[in-house]
Design brief:
CATH class of the largest domain: Alpha Beta
Number of helices: 8
Number of strands: 20
Helix content: 10-25%
Order of helices and strands: EEEEEEEEHEHEEEEEEHEHEEHEHEHH
Structural class: alpha+beta
Largest sheet: 7 strands, mixed
Radius of gyration: 18 Å
Shape: globular
Number of domains: 2
Distance between the termini: 17 Å
Low-confidence stretches: none
CATH topology of the largest domain: lpxc deacetylase, domain 1
CATH architecture of the largest domain: 2-Layer Sandwich
Mean pLDDT: 91
């Protein structure tokens, strides 16, 4: 059977750190929520639902915006909420407007959620089930979705770089090795990009402590890569975080070729505008699923 009931955290969580792009200290509180409340951010009293309708900017991260309030770099936390099966939670931004980059992955967010405890709520999970193929393009990049009886994501890169190259990563939630290999994958950049990013007011908080930096075909981080395909795994992490802005976990197969935050967002909007999915409660699709609740296998 699939995961049948909605989930939230058992205890509140406080997380502090530096914003990757702003370089400013930030503090946020993750607070338990009731069933059907969804995932929502609060900044200075303004409630910003974690939904694609509120996605505003996609330059090297995903930003939410509403009523003059901005929440930057939400994708790593959104991915962590997906990885831990959290449907309902309130995230209050007490200081700053960018989520902390921490180690550059979803690792700390996932660990903090696990430490706080996860509880089931008395309401069934709702899934977005892909009903028909859909594909969108952006120059030579594209993302497509096809119906499937499970959630599966494949990301393929195409870099002129001997380390990254055109590697492909396949994420299947019920595959424990696949799961463990994705949420700890760190963000990355190239040394020649750093000056440009900072000229644009970005990457002010970036360092070798929270990002992998490539100098052509060399990794500058002393510890090297966590996985030989760590950048592709991180791109997959980003994609999953952005997909969760649909508001529901997806049942279907997603393939991305060279996709980034902007294309991810356009894809989610296309899913909605083209009516490519239907919403179903867990009990409606339980018979077609071929695996158990994967959260039970990893926690």
């Amino acid at each position: 059977m699939i995961c049948q009931f909605q989930r939230t955290i058992k205890n509140p969580i406080k997380i502090e750190g530096v914003g990757l792009h702003s370089g400013e200290n930030t503090t946020l509180y993750l607070i338990p929520a009731k069933e059907n409340e969804g995932i929502k951010f609060i900044k200075d009293g303004v409630v910003i639902p974690a939904h694609i309708d509120n996605a505003h900017s996609f330059e090297y991260s995903t930003t939410l915006y509403k009523e003059g309030k901005t929440i930057r770099t939400v994708e790593h936390l959104m991915a962590a909420l997906y990885f831990t099966g959290i449907d309902n939670i309130t995230i209050e931004i007490a200081q700053g407007e960018e989520l902390p980059i921490l180690d550059g992955s979803s690792k700390v967010f996932v660990e903090k959620i696990k430490e706080a405890g996860i509880v089931s709520l008395p309401q069934e999970k709702i899934y977005a089930v892909i009903e028909e193929p859909i594909e969108i393009f952006q120059e030579d990049k594209f993302i497509k979705a096809t119906p499937s009886n499970r959630f599966k994501v494949i990301y393929q890169a195409n870099y002129n770089n001997s380390i990254i190259g055109n590697k492909k990563f396949e994420y299947i939630p019920e595959n424990i090795d696949s799961f463990k290999g994705i949420y700890t994958a760190r963000t990355y950049c190239f040394l020649e990009e750093v000056e440009y990013l900072r000229s644009k007011g970005l990457a002010k908080g970036g360092s070798l402590e929270n990002a992998v930096v490539f100098d052509k075909d060399k990794v500058l981080n002393e510890e090297g890569l966590r996985f030989e395909d760590e950048p592709i795994r991180h791109k997959t992490l980003d994609l999953i975080g952005d997909l969760y802005l649909l508001g529901y976990p997806i049942i279907g197969e997603i393939f991305s070729f060279k996709g980034g935050h902007r294309l991810n967002a356009e894809f989610v909007k296309a899913l909605i505008s083209q009516g490519a999915y239907s919403l179903k409660q867990a009990s409606e699709i339980i018979e077609i699923m071929n695996f158990g609740c994967f959260y039970d296998k990893v926690y």
